Amino acid sequence: MRNLIIIFTFLFLSISMPLVFGNLAIVKVESIESAFKNGDSKQLASYFNANVKIELPSRSKIYSSQQAKLILEQFFAKNKPIGFKVQNERQYKGTKKVIGQLTAVSQSYRVVYSVDTERNIINSIKLEKQTLK
């Protein structure tokens, strides 16, 4: 009887744990998208690696997570977001690249960010101006 309980416990955990932790990873990606849409540099920074590469139209550098938060805070203050839409996602060897479009009041930007899927942290963010058609 004791062996049967151990077996059922093991089966339950082996089935339920991936579902629970898999959903947490999805929530984090959705939170990142929400942060872009709302121009929330604080929420974005909560997913930053200790050092993050930030590429903007005017500068490109590796910053500490705190510096990166301030850089994006300034960017969002000048470019108030009104929308964000993911256009493509690719995963390769523990890294997920997400490509999206950030729509600001006066300009649209192509966003490419890189997430370490094992630790669910952002390693880089690139924002490129898109030409209006």
Descriptive tags:
42% helix, 133 residues, alpha+beta
Structural write-up:
The chain is of the alpha+beta class and 133 residues long. The protein has one domain (2-130): Nuclear Transport Factor 2, Chain: A. It has 3 helices and 6 strands, in the order ααββαββββ. It has helices spanning 2-38, 41-45, 65-78, and strands at 48-55, 60-64, 81-92, 95-104, 108-116, 121-130. It has a 6-stranded mixed beta sheet with strand order 2-1-6-5-4-3, with helices on one face. Strand 4 and strand 5 form a beta hairpin. The longest helix is centred in the N-terminal third of the chain and has 37 residues, at 2-38. The radius of gyration is 19 Å and the shape is elongated. The N and C termini lie far apart (71 Å). Residues 16-27 have low confidence and may be disordered.
CATH topology: Nuclear Transport Factor 2, Chain: A
Secondary structure: number of strands: 6
Helix content: 40-55%
Q: What structural class do the secondary elements suggest?
A: alpha+beta
Task: Identify the CATH class.
Answer: Alpha Beta
Write the layout of secondary structure elements.
Layout: H1 2-38, H2 41-45, E1 48-55, E2 60-64, H3 65-78, E3 81-92, E4 95-104, E5 108-116, E6 121-130
Parallel strand pairs: 1-6
Antiparallel strand pairs: 1-2, 3-4, 4-5, 5-6
